[in-house]
Specification:
4-stranded antiparallel beta sheet; Tachylectin-2, Chain A; 4 helices; Esterase-like activity of phytase family protein; 431 residues; Phytase-like_dom; signal; disordered N terminus
Length: 431
């Protein structure tokens, strides 16, 4: 293992069934290992591991085994650098990568009582040992990568911004990432066996060390920058894989994205070995208005951050905006699939993203039922909760993204029991 990682903060775990739903308090870290000491444009940073971009429970494994995944590594947007350093250090759409050699990685975790133990670290790499990187590939809509001295870094055909993970019972994973957006089929040793990309975008990955297959809907290239694949979930039947965009497409433009409520969720059929077989569906989740989730936030701030599957036609979707966190049960049994329709084409005008009322245009979105709201009761979830996994249909497990400690934040894990109503809805949906 070429890097050592550990959670900076450990969650105090609690599950007391029958009491009101409440998130557990967080404990201070017992041990921590820093990632790097770097200087960005003369400003020192003390970076720590950030491995909370995605979380999944391993199907068929004991309840205490989970897998987490990092994103692309430490990064600072030029237009947000003043919030970190007190003054803006660069301009435009630049993105500073203080550790450009960072390798996105998967972590196997064991959670017992109040302790989280890292059992294994799996840096993602090609079969020829070429490490995956967090630098953007040569996409039309992507940030300009800069190093700590604010010099251009260029692009990488092996670049990924991993944000979500699903673990296969037979070993291996599916990882969703934001750049393409694309999906990575990864084996149990961290080798990327294949990368699925939107049809027509193959040239963006010229020179890739991993096999590229153009199998995803071409409209995915309309994803909003830094709002690609954010949640992924494997159904209990192990044949249905769901993956969601974080936000509505910029379709036809970014202004449309800012006001749209229509997020697309894909369904993929896997073969018995867990490999891609075919596209099975493409649905709409009409996310709530911002004031229903986090009063004072704008619609563009509402993000779908994680999925966890209930069965082959229902998932849990976690939404967040500001300090608001909600989880919805989404049922696709009677939802319209957009595969092969005009709504799946770039020429559609007005676009799906421009529609507020879907009924007049003949689209039935996923049925959405709110089952958890952190603002109800006494829950005080930490900010930047990004990963979520449903465990034994009675509780949710969350993990936070600490942004590699750029602002001194800690990674946290916590467990939240669902109330009786939510449990009943889940069990009813599973029938």
């Amino acid at each position: 293992m070429n890097q050592q990682w550990i959670l900076r903060s450990l969650g105090v775990w609690a599950l007391i069934l029958g009491l009101p739903v409440s998130a557990a308090d967080l404990a201070a870290a017992d041990v921590q290992i820093p990632l790097a000491e770097v200087s960005v444009a003369g400003h020192p940073l003390h970076l720590t591991v950030g491995m909370g971009s995605g979380l999944t429970h391993a199907q068929g494994a004991p309840d205490d085994i989970f897998y987490a995944v990092t994103d692309r590594g430490p990064n600072i947007a030029c237009n947000k650098s003043a919030k970190i350093f007190g003054s803006q250090i660069c301009q435009g759409d630049g993105m500073v990568f203080p550790v450009p050699t960072f390798t996105p990685s998967i972590y196997k975790l064991q959670v017992t009582d109040d302790h989280v133990k890292v059992l294994q670290s799996l840096p993602l790499h090609a079969a020829n040992q070429t490490a995956m990187t967090g630098l953007p590939p040569a996409l039309m809509h992507s940030e300009q990568a800069l190093n700590a001295e604010l010099q251009p870094l260029g692009s990488s055909p092996n670049g990924i911004d991993s944000e979500c993970i699903a673990a296969l019972k037979t070993g291996g994973f599916w990882v969703g990432e934001e750049y393409g957006p694309s999906l990575l089929r990864v084996n149990a040793e961290g080798v990327v066996l294949e990368r699925l990309v939107p049809k027509g975008s193959e040239s963006d990955y010229a020179g890739s060390a991993v096999p590229i297959r153009a199998a995803l809907p071409p409209l995915l290239v309309k994803r909003t920058v830094n709002r690609g694949f954010e949640g992924i979930a494997l159904a209990p039947d192990r044949r249905a894989l769901f993956v969601t965009l974080q936000s509505p497409f910029s379709n036809p433009d970014k202004e449309t994205f800012k006001h749209s409520r229509n997020v697309r969720i894909l369904k993929i059929t896997l073969d018995e070995q867990g490999n891609f077989e075919k596209m099975a569906g493409a649905y709409v989740f009409q996310i709530p208005r911002a004031d229903q989730l986090a009063p004072g936030e704008q619609q563009k701030d509402v993000k779908v951050s994680a999925l966890s599957a209930v069965n082959d036609h229902a998932v849990l979707a976690m939404l967040r905006a500001g300090k608001g966190v909600q989880v919805y049960l989404l049922n696709f049994a009677h939802a319209s699939s957009l595969l092969g329709t005009a709504w799946a084409k770039t020429e559609a005008s007005p676009s799906l993203e421009a529609q507020d009322d879907l009924e007049p245009v003949g689209i039935t979105p996923a049925k959405a039922t709110l089952i958890y709201d952190a603002s109800v009761g006494h829950d005080k979830l930490p900010e930047k909760v990004e990963g979520m996994s449903l465990l034994n249909d009675r509780e949710l497990v969350f993990i936070t993204d600490n942004d590699f400690g750029i602002r001194g934040d800690q990674t946290a894990m916590l467990r939240v029991p669902l109330d009786a109503r939510a449990v009943a809805l889940l069990r009813q949906s599973a029938r």
